[in-house]
């Protein structure tokens, strides 16, 4: 009788252990399913966010490119491929004034936000344009207030230079390689548009080339 009781107790213990093992395996399966489900949801959310972020970034880049491609009202352009880029030691007769490109002197005008109070050589300024600078010029019609405003903008903007030009037709003219804009006042919003678009802009033949350590003038 005692032996039977022992066998029964052992059997009961074995049954309990098996039941516990089954329960543990069931919990492990549930935990695995929950983990996989949560992981899948997280990955899907991250992928969805990543796709959104990429698309959003691409949209912004497309908008920026579209804005850059849109011409500024009143802007004149020249075919950059037809503008010479040979270094010469002689004076160059440019077909437009101020020149927007063409053959030029081997040394550029320093264009690190430099404001020149006297006229500068076209041949050196054109070399600055080749490096991605915007050249701001003005004639005698420009007011003292406008000249001061322009000087303030230029002095804070690397890859720009400014100088007077009594011979130009426009009161204030902004020139980049192959592009030019004429305005009457420094407050014209197109001034900032031109600077934003063309300072080291896509028109630059030699992007990243230095605007420091060039020719300087008082």
Automatic annotation (TrEMBL):
Keywords: Membrane, Plasmid, Transmembrane, Transmembrane helix. The chain crosses the membrane at residues 33-54. InterPro entries: DUF3105. This is DUF3105 domain-containing protein.
